Amino acid sequence: MAALAVFLWAIVKQGNGGPLFSNPEAVYGVGNLQGSQLAWVMVRCINSGIGGWAGGILYQSDFSRYAVRPGDQVYGQIFSIPLCLLGSNILGIVTTSCARGFYPNEPLLWKLYDLLPAIQRNEAPAARAAVFFAAFAFFLSQLSVTVVACGVVGGMDLAALCPRYIDIRRGSLIIAVIGICINPWKIMNRHLWICSLPRTSYGDHVYYHLLRHRRIKLSHLCLPQTGSDYWCVVSFACHRDIF
Questions:
Q1: What mean pLDDT comes out for the span 18-25?
Q2: What are phi and psi of 232, to 5 degrees?
Q3: Which of 28-32, 38-42, 133-137, 162-166 bottoms out in mean pLDDT, i.e. has the lowest?
Q4: Which residues contact 33 (CB under 8 A, 6 or more apart)?
Q5: Counting Cβ atoms within 10 Å, is residue 164 exposed (0-12), middle (13-18) or buried (19+)?
Q6: Mean local confidence (pLDDT), 66-75
Q7: Is the Cα dihedral 167, 170, 173, 179 positive or negative?
Q8: SS3 letters across the chain
Q9: Contact 21, 97 (CB under 8 A)
Q10: Summary mean pLDDT of the chain
Q11: What is the mean pLDDT of residues 112-138?
Q12: What CA–CA distance (Å, rounded) separates 114 from 131?
């Protein structure tokens, strides 16, 4: 509801779809793409999209196993997942485009935590209340998704390992503490982190399952030196990509 409210507010304020639809070349400084250039851009976008959901694809069996019969979960996933993802993406793209129209001095506001402060800076003081309620709604949404996608899934795994001492609730709390400790805050706070998703979702899985047959050198994973088998230079793993 909060995303829909922000979307409708942006549409009404801008009056149209915004410059990303009417004049995208002027926004990005890139001419009209055609032929192979357009094809490679599409491949990059698809690759990034799949990489962003690679984790969800891997752990979806934690929930599908509760189906009464094998395959019962397929119909729910076929309709609900594309509808929710496509709908949220459309809302985000249109809202960002509209924000570019009425906030031309701001950068492209793709992230919610960039959009809401921009609204607070450029609108009347009364907008602070709206920003607060929208931010609180998005916070609850992100918290719910994190609990289901990370806490419950990790809690199930820990409960399976030590069922006598750990149940799903305790396992979820342990995962929450571990997640805060190991989260790469500096990397996640930079926009360039998404560039590594395609490589993570494809290259590393192929390397781990097909080339190494799920056998890796654990000691080399934490060795920040060129002697490590997994040392990378400008996103090129010398030992791995050659051998």
A1: 81
A2: -115, 140
A3: 28-32
A4: 41
A5: exposed
A6: 76
A7: negative
A8: CHHHHHHHHHHHHHCCCCHHHHCHHHHHCCCCCCHHHHHHHHHHHHHHHHHHCHHHHHHCHHHHCCCCCCCHHHHHHHHHHHHHHHHHHHHHHHHHHHHHHHCCCCCCCCCHHHHHHHHHHHCCCCHHHHHHHHHHHHHHHHHHHHHHHHHHHHHHHHHHHCCCCCCHHHHHHHHHHHHHHHCCHHHHCCHHHHHHHHHHHHHHHHHHHHHCCCCCCHHHHCCCCCCCCCCEECCEEHHHHHC
A9: yes
A10: 76
A11: 85
A12: 12
For residue 232, what are the β-bridge partners? 237
Segment 164-181, tens digit of pLDDT: 888 888 888 888 888 777
Q: Strand 232-233 vs strand 236-237: parallel, antiparallel, or unpaired?
A: antiparallel
Distance CA 146, CA 125 (A): 32
Give the percent of the chain with pLDDT over 70.
79
Flag whether pLDDT at 218 surpasses 60. Answer: yes
Instruction: Give the side-chain half-sphere CA count within 13 A for 106.
Output: 21
- Reported confidence tier of residue 8, pLDDT bands at 50, 70, 90: confident
d(CA 40, CA 30): 14
Rounded to a whole number, what is the distance in angstroms from the first to the last CA of the chain?
A: 51
Q: What are 129-141's pLDDT values in tens digits?
A: 888 888 888 888 8
Burial (0-12, 13-18, 19+ Cβ within 10 Å), 151? buried
Q: Which amino acid is at 142?
A: Q
Task: Please give the structure tokens belonging to residue 28.
Answer: 């990005």
